[in-house]
């Protein structure tokens, strides 16, 4: 291997929109996943793990009016001549897995992992980003939409977020949606010259998405646009009313946002979004979801209703930072072993402690007592266990509480665990009950 010459600026850096997640931030990511799993497993959801890479066709079924399909896909032809893509989201993969395995319904699954979209990177918008989410396939019940929304809301609550608002809308049955899209197309076409250039381009691809425009110049035309509720069939209106009744019964605050359309083509009937109070409006969607009856069929499965959501981990953690909640907590260390003899004591002591379920780390390279004690301090360990030549000769070790709970004392090495137990009691209990 030819070494790359040393430079102040490293020769390689992560690609734009992709990041390394270092400890202790990575511990926060794991805790985020754990809290999410805890919330949804209690509601009967099991984890589904799908590949990062799928046949491109799985994602083109999301719809060719969807930007993540037309502009943002990481797709390539592999060595076996297959046209594949890194997943831009997970709902399509879940439906592909359902069509492939045909599990019994309702199929309640949750997921967690990275997705890839070739977007313009900025705060809260990355090319590799993580989501957690749930999907339920095979049930049409509006009370399921309520359950799904309630679980997302419970999760935000468990993180401690208080400034998250829920907006809901219904896109109606497929026919309602199609009639609405036609009406919007004529409305916007009639005022085409008053629209921004960006919205004129969006109009040609997908009139619904013009409603998403945040540009001031577009607002009067958007405000005058027809509203989806005027196009709801009685069945769609009833379904949406039942969802609202369910949310009220659970005391979940929401606002109906008639202009909410969401960016994916597969939605039918209920759609919803959770918006953060602290991020820029372009990135304030912390998560969203809805019904996508018809997607399983598009992927070669039987007619199957579906509903779910995905929550962006990256944006949700930014919202947590902004609200000062769910802080990064490094994995707590119980014991730091300081061995200045250069022998095998630290090797066997740390192995013994770890085997007893005690989190133990140590100093390396036979550094001085002072340097190793500095490391012990920095490690946050509750106790330092110190071994020098005198201790080896006497068959003892020195136990030094690090956080002001008493003086250091020597104990026979064979009795170390017994003496550590009271010093670590509260910590070990806390670790056992941590989320
Ligand atoms: P989505 O709205 O495209 O929906 O993404 C859900 C969440 O993922 C967003 O609200 C946002 O927090 C996060 N997200 C999306 N793109 C990025 C990005 N470039 N950088 C950082 N975070 C991002 C879906 O993906 C649907 N599959 C949701 C769903 C599930 N619908 C039904 N079931």
Written description of the protein model:
The protein is built from 16 helices and 16 strands. The longest helix has 18 residues, at 142-159. The two termini are 44 Å apart. The protein is elongated. With 435 residues, the chain is α+β, with helices and mostly antiparallel strands. It has helices spanning 25-41, 56-60, 67-70, 91-101, 142-159, 174-190, 197-205, 207-210, 219-223, 234-249, 295-298, 313-323, 345-355, 369-379, 389-394, 416-433; strands spanning 46-47, 53-55, 74-77, 83-86, 107-116, 128-137, 165-170, 255-256, 268-275, 285-291, 306-312, 335-339, 360-362, 383-387, 396-401, 409-412. Helix 1 (25-41) runs antiparallel to helix 5 (142-159) and helix 5 packs parallel to helix 10. It has an eight-stranded mixed β-sheet, sandwiched between helices. It has a five-stranded mixed β-sheet with strand order 13-12-14-15-16, sandwiched between helices. A three-stranded antiparallel β-sheet has the order 2-4-3. Bound molecules: histidyl-adenosine monophosphate (HAM). Histidyl-adenosine monophosphate is lined by residues 89, 91, 117, 119, 124-126, 129, 131, 133, 135, 263-264, 285-290, 292, 308-310, 312, 314-315.
Would you kindly provide a brief summary of this structure?
With 435 residues, this protein is an alpha+beta fold. The protein has 16 helices and 16 strands. The mean pLDDT is 93.
